[in-house]
Amino acid sequence: MENVGKIIKAMNIQQLVNNQVKIWNKISGDFPCLGAVIPTEEKTVRERALEKFALSANPGNRSDTGDVLDNEAYKRQLMEKLGVLFRTSFNYTDSELSIITRKGFMPVTTDFMKMARDFDPDISIEDIFQACRNLWIVNSLQVMMGQPVVLTPSVFAYSMLYPYSDNYLDDPHVSAQEKVAFSNRFRKRLTGEKVLAANPAEKLVFDLVALIESDWDRTAYPLVYQSLLSIHDAQTKSIRLMDSAALPGEDELLSICIEKGGTSVLADGYLVKGSLSPAQEEFCFGFGVVLQYIDDIQDISEDMSGGLETAFTRAHKEAMLEHYTNKTLNATATVLADLSCFDTDDPKPMMGLMNKSIRILAIEAIGKNSEYWDKHYLDEFEKYSPFSYAFVKKRRSNMQSNRISFMRKIEQHVFAGEAEKSAIV
Question: For 49, what's the count of Cα atoms within 13 Å in the CB-facing half-sphere?
Answer without folding.
Answer: 18
